[in-house]
What does this fold into?
Amino acid sequence: MLKKIGILFLISLSSCSLIKHKNKIPKTEFRGVWIATVVNIDWPQRGGDPWKKQQEEYLRILNFYKALNFNAVVVQIRTAGDAFYNSGISPWSRFLTGQEGLAPETDQDPLKWLIREAHIRGFEFHAWLNPYRATFDLNTEVLSENHDYFKHPDWMIKYGKKYYYNPGLPGVQNHMVSVIEEVVANYDIDAIHFDDYFYPYTIKDEVFNDSTSFLSNNPSRLSLENWRRSNIDSLVKQTHKAIKQQKPWVQFGISPFGVWKNKSTDPRGSDTKAGQTTYEDLYADPLLWMEKGWIDYLVPQIYWSLKLKVASHRVLLDWWAENYKNSNLYVGNGPYKLRNNSDKAWNKKKELPKQLRLARKTEAVRGNVFFSARSLMSGNKDIVNYIKKELYSYPSFTPASPLIVREEQPLPELATIEDKDNYLSITFKFQDSSNTRFANVYAIKNPKKPPSCKPENIIGKILMDSSSYFNIGKGIIKQRKHIAVTFTDRFRKETEPIVILLN
It folds into this structure.
């Protein structure tokens, strides 16, 4: 039987999400980490290990970054024509099961479990896919008979020591869109994420042999370069459309190589001397994708130190901040270089923290993503502690997409509070709870004043999972007489606060 205890229902005149606080730690800031699965870089440590061991390894990563107040994980679920999920299109990845095409020895759906464990801890889950890399090497004997290398050999182009899907074939593009649709339809993800692998990085004296498809699939008679870019543009456009038609709250983000063009080849380019560029060598045009509204966020991989002459992190961050539009802009940072790079700037304790401070004080930048998960977990405790103490000492919320206009939702009504031994179960009446993702609990001192929704006042971020109630431990609430509760929906929009009298 529900026990109703003292309830004070109060709606503040101002939304927590709209109050601007002059605080060095922002309320809204993307803090993400890439979890790479290809060749088991971050997770799992070894393909074919018992599922229980792999689970423990994944939770170790989540708990580490939860303690650092990160709020998003970008998990690689497709490395090279394979899948870390039960797919009707792609074979199981050998980096998960030890043998490509072999299902994992568990009754659980691995990806559903990965997503839920991330959500329970307050993380967004961004599903990271490599669209065009078909194999990691030339050893095709390790591939499943259901791999596209065997099913569609006409799609494959050998280049260097890998096989790639040919982006110029309509069949390839349709296939990739189907891959995306399958993931979006079957899994409760928060975003689809592409990295920088479009056309492959240039290899000296190697030719990417797509001449036949260029001649037969080029009705506009574009140059080879513009035709290749148009192929990538088309996939980006179609992916965005496919995602939003199924689940409009699911975002689409891309992480391109950090240099669009050098100024030496285009006055609009950055003052850098990169050996390759995303526009000229990878045939990717992120400026166009932002302009057209095809992506919700962009994460340029600016993996260089602040003062590196050929490609300064500072110069590139400023360039992207000046040239972004429509989408959210995050910075891709490279902690994998810490104390492990020929550029000795990475030996300095404050190189990475300085990059984070620069991003934070740059108005256009809304957060950061780290490559990769193991980088901070395998040493550099002094840097980790510094970041936690000085930069990420409080939680933050992930930004909403500027492309999505979300109507104000009716505020739910507080129904009951059930007093359990170790926790309170708080139930609300929603008109529609299907899009509710998290309940956010704030500590407050004076219930007669508008609640302060500063990040330092957050004491809980609890997965609602489309339910009408949440549980919060008494150890978290302690002896507080009042709390404020807001709700964040799948679109990242936070409600106005509800102040609750507990006793």
Remarks:
- Confidence is low (pLDDT under 50) at residues 1-15, 17-23.
- Residues 406-501 form a domain with the Immunoglobulin-like fold (CATH 2.60.40.10).
